[in-house]
Design a protein that fits this description.
single chain; mainly alpha; globular
Length: 171
Amino acid sequence: MNLKVVIEHWRLAYGLLGNMEDAEEAAQDALAYALLHIHQFDDRRSQFTTWLYRITVSRSRDILRKRRVPTFSLNNWLRDRQNPTDFRPGPEERAEKKENQNSVWDALQILSPDLREAILLRHWSNCTYQEIAEITNCPMKTAQSRVRLAHQKLAHILEAVDFQKTAEEPR
């Protein structure tokens, strides 16, 4: 397994859990499980990456069930992942980008776990709808519906945020 695979699964777990330590635990558990149970993998049922994503989502769900906390701090996530060596955009562009990221991640936090899983798998992990269905153990139409609903809810939430910002601007 290469480092890229490890990072992808940590990112997915982090997106689902919002906590670095929990994401590390979920990713490690998933990769260890995959190594110990590689003989159970059936390439006729799914691709290896889909199988591994499914294990990562399952391990993340286990951790969520244990801690019973439905939300996470997106501000901490954004603060921890800033790249101080990236000086290309100016301060205004960086501030606007960060504000937009905060808005999107705050909106993601509001989504139900099923919708958040679907949207993160689709856009962070670039999974197909079929892969999302296999990973989340639901029909493909349900996976498509969850991604569509997540987009709709995010758009609605972000429109409300934009409206609120516009209303708060000085005239």
